[in-house]
Structure formats: structure tokens, C-alpha cells
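Good morning C.,

I know you're traveling, so I'll keep this short. The sequence:
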Amino acid sequence: MDDRGGSFVAVRRISQQDLNRGHSTSSAEVVAGSAAWLGKGLSCVCVQSREGDARPSFDLTPVQEECLQRLQNRIEVVYDSSSPEHQEALRALWDAAFPGEELCGLVSEQWKAMGWQGKDPSTDFRGGGFISLENLLYFGRNFPFNDSSNYKPLHSPGLVLFYSLPFRNLCYNLTCKDLPQFLQRSFQDLLLKQDGDRAMWEYPFAVAGVNITFMLIQMLDLEAVKPQTMLGATFLKFLAENESAFDLLYCITFKLMDHQWLTMRASYMDFNAVMKATRRQLETELLQEGIKRLEDLPSYNLLKRY
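The C-alpha cells, ready to paste straight into the viewer:
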């Protein structure tokens, strides 16, 4: 236990050797550690200021003001487990993650399979609010693995198992008639950790997603009346052109974070370092010359891999 307090969930990957021995995964393999994944633990990544940073104020056009206000209204919404709208969004997220797999309830051990810290995902939304659920749902709907109506079982030793559930048989056909190829390998690849040489203990997908929402809000200074950094002002130009810019940037950031994770050969104790590297790379790309839209970011190409 370190002096930061808090807790996280680490996820043990199952090797081919384990499978050959008939290894059975239990909840004991979702282990608690000492670094916080949400809120307190992420503050060292997201809200620290840099010495010498100027804090200018940027004037906004009426369109930018309107778009910022609508985004701020979304950010202010706290997840309400009693809200039918929020409950429906949570069910929709399950369907996007595990199509065809019946959900037993909004409070269920099944949620650990997505990378929530417990059986009730609502307890993890404190770091990002309802918008963090919206971000995950946008990612799942717009950048899925493929058409969920056309899949076949595929045994894979590389799936991340959070508790005893037959996810070795939950994988999808790489062929999709209804979606462009560049949309096929994002959300499901990150959820099931199917891309790259993964660590034995991986970051939990859903909790990492909430952290990314929180990081972006802080990095872009989106709770200010008007942007006080060049990053914030640059982003509002994108937002005025595309009201889904925050959601799209979230998807790009999630893929970039996973790319950094693999590049750094990280394991669960390296999560904060990976988030810092992700933020630095994103800041650099957003301020590059010639970036007219989010699709021009070099890291956008990570969404297009297949």
C-alpha cells in the first residue's frame, strides 16, 4: 500500500498454457491494488498545473459559446441510477459491449467483465458523470468491432477474463458488410484486449474510459466560462464545426492511450504514467500546424487500423 490511498482493479490475462491446463478464472483474479483509478488517483495526471503557464482568455464566437454551453450542460449531469434515461443508456452500453449476452441486472457481477470495479457501475461514474457513460456508448456504437448480427465463436487465449464467464467463446467475425473496414477494430479490441502484446495484468476497460473523460475535461478546461489555454480555444473551433467533437476526441484518446500502453509495455502499476504520456502526445497533436479537424490528428489513424 502506498501513501496515495485509493484502490484499483487489475486484470490477469489468461495464457494458452493456462487454458491447456483447464484453468478456471474466479473473482479472486480481479485483484485490488493501492493506486486510485478514479478521481483522487487521477488528479496527478489531469489537474496539475505547469509552472510558467500563461492563462490568457480567448474570445468566443456566438456559435462557439453556444456549443460550449451545451457541452458544459452535459458535463454537469451526474449519473443518476434512478433515472430511466440513465438506466437505458447503461443497458445500451452492455448491448454494445456484449451483443447477444443477456444482462441479469443493472447491479450484477457481470459488469466486472467490462472493467468496472464492482457489480454496480454507477459507483464508478463519480469521476466523469453521465457524460463518461455517453462517451463509452458513443465509442461502442460508432467504432465497434463489427456487425454484431454476424459473428462466430473463436477460441482466443488473449481475452481478458474478469470473472468466470465463457468469454473465450465471445468473439466476432472479422468480416462485416455493413460497416467500413476502418470502423471494425476499436471498441471491441480494447474491451477484449485483442490487439498487441498484452501485459499479464491489464487496465480495466470501463474504469479507464471514465478516467479518459475526466482527463479531457480537465485538459481542455471545459468547465471555464471561456477557454484560458490555446488547447481549449483550439478544441472549441473543432466543436463549433462538429458537435460530436468531444465524443470523437474521446475515441481517439482511448485508442492513443492503449497504443501508449503497448508501446511502453505497461502493466497495471504504470497506468498513471501511460495517462501522462497520452496527454502529452494529445496536446502536441492538437497544437500542430495544419490540424483543421480532429480527423487530421495523427492519432486518428489508430481508429482506422484493421
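Safe travels,
E.
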